[in-house]
TrEMBL record:
Name used for this protein in its record: protein-tyrosine-phosphatase
Keywords, sorted A to Z: Hydrolase, Protein phosphatase
Gene Ontology molecular-function annotations: protein tyrosine phosphatase activity
Catalysed conversion reaction: O-phospho-L-tyrosyl-[protein] + H2O = L-tyrosyl-[protein] + phosphate
Pfam (any one): LMWPc
Amino acid sequence: MTYRVCFVCTGNICRSPMAESVFRARVVEAGLDGLVEVDSAGTGGWHEGDPADPRTVSVLEEHGYDSGHTARQFQPSWFARLDLVIALDSGHLKALRRLAPSPQDAAKVRLLRSYDPAAGDDLDVPDPYYGGRDGFEECLEMVEAAGAGLIAAVREQVEGQAA
């Protein structure tokens, strides 16, 4: 059975495609490819059909990640097929929980940085869109830092499904 994870930010051109790309690489490294499906979306549809922001693409490629992406908007009907919905900041978390058709679906929504024990109380990944390239680098660092905790949590769920 496939475990499905979707990363969600505002427009699906900066943070969530970056998280999707990094986590997809972690899934492969962990030997979970074929067992875990990874995608991303935005809370809004302003960029639907667009590629990732060129700064996102550049930072991903420089760090050895795949950057192929087409933006899309998150749909409430997706909750039925998703196991985990990862919000990039508290605004996305609230928006996604409001969209959830049931309390069980709302419980599927978690903040990405909640998987990073070093994150402390600040669990938001700041939106780099209106800033310079350094914001995209910072975003990548935060996404990577949460990766080990997230892959451990997903592995536990996947192994639990297999049992």
